[in-house]
Amino acid sequence: MLSLSRRQLLKMAAAGSAVSAWNFPAWGLEADLPYMDRIGLQLYTVRNHMAMDPERTLQAIAAAGYRQVELMSIDSSAVEIAGIARDAGLMVHSAFMDWRAIADPTAGGVTSVDQTVELAERIGLRHVVFGYIGQPQRDTVDKCLAIAEATNRAAEKFRGAGLRLCYHNHSFEFAPGSGGNDGTMFDLFLKRFDPQWVEWELDVFWAQIGGLDPIKCLQDLQGRVTQVHLKNLQAGTGVITNEGQVPPEAFKELGAGVIDIPAIMRVAQATGVQYCHVEQDHSPAPLQSIVESINYLKR
Predict the structure, then answer these.
(1) pTM to 2 decimals?
(2) Within-domain flag for 159
(3) For residue 46, what is the domain's CATH number?
(4) What total of structural domains would you count in the chain?
(5) Residue 1 falls inside a structural domain
(6) What are the DSSP calls for 228-271, one per residue?
(7) Closest CA to 113 of 150, 78, 142, 147
(8) φ, ψ of residue 113 in degrees (nearest 5)
(9) Radius of gyration of the chain (CA)
(10) pLDDT tens sequence across 72-127
């Protein structure tokens, strides 16, 4: 069984303590990079550890210096996870919903939009993230148009409950022609999503590997991006718009890839982004990776 011993947890804390956020005066954080007072971690990064030992995993995340976590799902178990996270001193503002509630609502076992609203209120969320679309649900322009309309309807429901809906990109949205006459699916969604209701959570890795400049994306979408996923891309990786073809080793710690993460964070601040969450989809040692990434930001 995968579990964190007390010794491992203390080792994690020691790894971050030399430059931990709470050992710096507030002005030191402000003078370096923005968002360090609320830097988040998307829990998908440590999904295997969370499945085995959520309490100690969340304690290790807090010990490393993260200030909040973004939940992987909005369901009954998320209510408990959010409570454990807050007990560990972590804020919980954002979580991923069941994407099928918007893109494939008649599928079996789907947590509906209405159920998601109720659960999100119980958890105490501010942001709900629509974070994926399966290939069969996005393989025609008509399906994409229907998803855009359903996203707007869902976003209006969330806003009525005091919640904000964000769309999180991968790289499939940037495939040439995927949006028909609108260009790419990304272009189609930009045009069709109601900017009053639908916000964006820009994932800079997926934008970069999809062939875009994530800094330019932030600038072009000023006022529409409220959250950012920070992750880095291995040098020499070409453009890949099929997310299933991305090799695991392409996902790197924040200081170990080709994306200028500090520049991303500064542009994010200038363009109105509220939260930044570190994420690394694949790592042979996720707990070590999250320490390496946050220590890079602290330096």
Answers:
(1) 0.90
(2) yes
(3) 3.20.20.150
(4) 1
(5) no
(6) EEE-EE-TT------GGG--GGGEE-TTSSSS-HHHHHHHHHHT
(7) 150
(8) -60, -45
(9) 19
(10) 999 999 999 999 999 999 999 999 999 999 999 999 999 999 999 999 999 999 99
